[in-house]
Amino acid sequence: MATTLKPFGLKPVYHPSGLDRATPFVGTNSYVAGTTYTAPYSLSAGQSFFQFQPVSITSSGQLTIAASAAASGTVYGVFDGVEFTDSQGRRSVAKGASKATLDASSDIVFWIFTDPELVYEAQVNGSATTASIGQQYNFETASGLTPASGTSIGSGGAFFSTCALNDTAVGTATQGQVRVVGLGREVAYPTGELNAWGDAYTIVQVKIANNTFVYPIASV
What contacts 158, CB < 8 A, 6 or more positions away? Predict the structure, then answer.
């Protein structure tokens, strides 16, 4: 049972077509803004990109962190990595990077899951039941659980999103960021048991409902 809140952002799990588009660098698409490759992103001081973090595109075409609520912007996709030439002239590939690292780098290329049909797993900051299927949710706004939240391990090591879903559906005729399509197959932490409907912090399968490439359809 999922009795502990250990969110991991939006982890791609399968594509309805049966094709393997949830595999890194198979299902991802490169993203570069402009012609110089030097600043194809928009981050605030202290922010980072993390693996499985929901991301958006600014009005000037820069990659940025997705908003928590659909009313504040669409979701372009899910971040899976970045390659860049660092300040010492070395070409690097990473699952995440801080603004400070990117600011000191050049030739930046991001790798993003952008297929609107991809299904992801995410953890709710609360309990979800079968009644959640078809319902839409926004991302969490609580500290440490927002789209901008994440953790890094070691210097230049792994970067993991800690974004969770809000525990309350957005309601009828309201646009949310994701739509629940099923129960997550993730093994629950820390018990090692299968995740189940009604768990304290249920893991669910979702699709991006407020997708940049698809006309959004509000919750019904």
Answer: 51, 95, 96, 152
> Does position 25 have pLDDT exceeding 80, yes or no?
no
Q: For residue 165, what are its two tokens?
A: 């879903």
For 120-139, how does the pLDDT look when each residue is reduced to its tens digit (9 = 90+)? Answer: 999 999 999 999 999 999 99
Do 205 and 183 contact (CB within 8 A), yes or no? yes
Where do the structural domains in the chain lie, given as residue ranges? 11-15+117-208, 28-113
The beta-strand segments (E) located in 100-171 are 106-113, 119-123, 136-137, 150-153, 158-161
Check residue 14 and report its DSSP letter. E
**pLDDT tens-digit readout, 143-176:** 999 999 999 876 556 899 999 999 999 988 899 9
**Closest to 204 measured CA to CA, from 129, 151, 149:** 129
Q: Tokens standing for 111?
A: 């790798």
Residue found by looking up tokens 């980072």 in the block: 48
